[in-house]
Amino acid sequence: LAKREGRNTMRLFSLRMQQQVQETLAIARDLRWAVERRQLVLHYQPQVDALTHRLVGVEALVRWQHPQWGLVSPARFIPIAEDTGLIQEIGTWVLHEALRQNGAWQAAGLPIVPMAVNLSVAQFRHPLLHGTLAEALRHSGQPAHMLELELTESVAMEDSDFTVTTIAGLKQLGVSLSIDDFGTGYSSLSYLKRFKVDKLKIDQSFVRGLNRDPQDEAIVDTVISLARSLGLRTIAEGVETSDQLQFLQQHGCDEIQGYLFSRPVPADAFPELLRSLSGIDRVTTMAPHPVSC
Ligand code: C2E
Ligand code: MG
Ligand code: MG
Ligand code: MG
């Protein structure tokens, strides 16, 4: 019996793997047309000041509106886009669209804040990145400081002349740089000194453990102190509860992003979201005593 069960489990397992492989192939096949067929959409998530809760930035997050599968998560298709090289076309579209949208909101009288865009390693390594960015900025009419690029540690950590030159080029353009999912990559921190990054995004896996896991608390506290002593700003991502917010406020985190304030929303829902955000009074969740230092 055990043997038969084992065999059944194996069969189920390989069936699931087979389905996954087929799904991946189908995604790769259809993704090729996604930009051209205007199936990609950006959703926008507000970033707020930790103490005042005023809007300080927006992150653009891509989704794929597939005619049969519905809204596909970037976690599902971005890795495939990276493997197939489609990330260049998709990434360029994201840049243009995010900058265009930010310009449209500014024209409509919304608060003027930088737009954060995620950059894949493959985009970072592309020899034409600088030109692509310059062109996207020029086309949108947005000043460079209105664009914030989110790089993962795996990009920045690679200690090569190429990385140094590329980052210097981006800084020269005038865009600002954040390290996304900070703390989940390598352990060497020396790159923070060599590359002029502006902000660390504390990964949501650590934020989840606040008020529950002393180790996560220690990590978050350390990252905030590190950032402060290097003159960098911090933003916590994945903030879902007022307890997490309170911990972050008390430990001097600068900015907050997470479902507590809002999920990423479609562009047309953003102005209304801002109105409701400014109406929300979260003063009761503020630190009971002022943050020192
Ligand atoms: P990320 O850049 O670290 O983005 C944060 C992710 O956490 C987003 O997932 C966001 O929707 C989600 N999130 C925000 N607040 C909360 C919260 O309070 N709780 C929880 N549980 N989740 C929260 P999303 O939109 O599914 O994106 C996943 C990842 O896909 C992103 O992680 C980013 O690495 C990648 N991605 C998204 N858009 C782009 C893009 O335009 N280009 C590239 N290269 N990558 C992208
Ligand atoms: Mg990001
Ligand atoms: Mg992140
Ligand atoms: Mg992440």
Automatic annotation (TrEMBL):
Domain spans labelled EAL: 24-278
Full protein name: PAS domain S-box-containing protein/diguanylate cyclase (GGDEF)-like protein
